[in-house]
Structure formats: C-alpha cells, structure tokens
Amino acid sequence: MNKNWKNTFYLLFLPVVLSSCSLPVDTGLAELAVTDFHESYNRASFRAIHDNASPDFKAFIPQDKFVLLLGKLHARLGQHQSSNLINWTAKSSIKDGATITLTYDAVYDNDDRAKESFTFKVNDGMARLYNFNVASKALNRSKDTDI
Fold it and tell me: N or C, which terminus of the chain has less Cβ within 10 Å?
C-alpha cells in the first residue's frame, strides 16, 4: 500500500472512529450531587444550591427567583424523605465533559410518588446542577409554585 494512500486513509477515517467512541461516564459524582441537593433542600439552603449550580443554570434563573421557587416547592412538598434511582442517561465530549441526567422516584412529606430529574454538567471532578425538575400531584393541586 502506498504511504500517501495510508495517510489519506487515516486522515479520512480517524475522525469517524474517534467520534464514535464515547468517554467513560461515572454517575457517582452526579449521585453525590443529588444527595447534597436534597440535604440543602431540607435545610432550606436554597441559595447554596444556586451558588453551586452551573453557570448556564445561574444565567437561566436568577438566585432570587430560584430561592422563591424552591421555597414554594418546600411549602407544598415538605421535606424530602428518600429517592430511588430509576434511570440515568449521559452524554460526554472531550470539550464539554459529561452531561448526566438522573431520574428518581422520590418520597416527600406530602407526596410519596413524586418524580425527580436532575441534569448535571460534570467537568474537572465537579458535578454542577444544570437542570432540576420535580413532578408531583401535590404541586398540581396548587398554583403556589408559579413565579
């Protein structure tokens, strides 16, 4: 095989091979971040949650609105009791690190069948909140969570 042809082959197909490889993803950091979120939530340390979130999250929702929203969630749902991981997905890239979404069945004082979803940006050994969602019948009964 001609040396130039080999070089052309590598230049054309190496990017395809590399792009099809995914980086290994460890959900452990994200799971610890969920535990930290719940502990902060139960202590009503909503500012701390916002302070530790990703820059994208902070740009999306200002701290005062986030604190107001979580205060209303806490008033309707009560304390977080437990969560059971039911699903996770992950995307990773060399440039952006990993994005991990964890979905839980959760128990709160006022709802034992809530669903939670957390998305974290994981980079440089840190899992930072990118998105949080909770679905609960206790929230559907009230407009208290409108901000």
Answer: N
User: Domains plus CATH for the chain?
Assistant: 24-140 (3.10.450.100)
Which amino acid is it at 40? S
pTM of the entire predicted model: 0.79
* 3-state secondary structure string across 88-117: EEEEEECCCEEEEEEEEEEEECCEEEEEEE
Check pLDDT > 80 for residue 80: yes
By the 8 A CB rule, do 136 and 120 touch? no
Q: What is the predicted pLDDT for the residue at 14?
A: 47
% the chain with pLDDT above 90 = 69
DSSP H or E stretch at residue 137: helix 137-140
Q: Residue 113 in contact with residue 122, Cβ under 8 Å?
A: no
Query: 120 near 128, Cβ under 8 Å?
Result: yes
